[in-house]
Design goal:
With 318 residues, this protein is mainly alpha-helical. Helix content is 64%, strand content 0%. The longest helix is centred in the C-terminal third of the chain and has 49 residues.
Length: 318
Amino acid sequence: MSDKKDAYYSRSWALLSHDKGWWKVLLVMGIADFVPVAGALGTYGYRLEWARLTAWGVDSYPKQKNVRVGECIKSGWRGFVGFLGWAVVWGIICGALKKLTDNNDVMNLLLDVATLFLGVLYLVVALRATIYQDFKAAYQVNRIWDMVKADFGGFAKIVGIGFLIGLISGVILFVLGLAIVMPVLVNLFFGIGSISTRSDLLVRMPSILSALSGVFPALALLCYVANLARTFEELIVTTAVGLWVRNFDVPHWGASKDPLPATAMALAEPSKPQDPTQAPADQAPADTPTDATPGAANPTPQSEPDANDDNSDGPVIL
């Protein structure tokens, strides 16, 4: 494949940062993730729906208004159910291998590396569930294996992108943590260390309480910044997965159990993406949602591939 086709980070970054005020999406998602269950499902569904359009061949950008939160949560739930079975199986395998090797350090390292790849695989299967609007599409193991086998190099690059972003953000967060939390902890330490008598405790108590009250806002700020970094990584990696899946000619996919089309590795044309609802009759998915095809249950970008039109009547968020 061409270098341009493999440039997943630069292409994902270009899509993410295309619109003015793109960073507002990060700020909102960083806050939304603190909402139990619904927040996490909503932001997950937001990413999956953006990646779905990207996989179809639409160069779309994160939508900043008119976001359909209910559709996001629904899509996030579908994606969660799609990868949950894979995660359970992997958890059982990890537990068994650790027990058989008596928690060997080498085995733990190998499992940690494999888990990096599994994280991207979970996104692939969740995206398939989103494309077909049916979680069962995430469990077509043969089709998913065909995709990974056909372009393992691209798959591995996305794993590397996620790892590097996580590593860099981890270092930055560590430095920020020291800068934000350490002054508070130092004041607290010296306040407690200078106490030798009960009278000292009474004298120092206001400063100790003041230092303690300063810890919680600092920790809350640090948690929010960490959430922003994680959100950035997830948006980039999820979109990169959408670009990777685009290589498999999504507009010509049949039912979820069907083999990949012969043109699967051809680069989709992003400037004028095919409207899935206008596909030729012999390639069009079934009209009913029972087949779990891309045309079923309105899972496609419908008749408006320009996903950045704020007046779009499309069914989802982008």
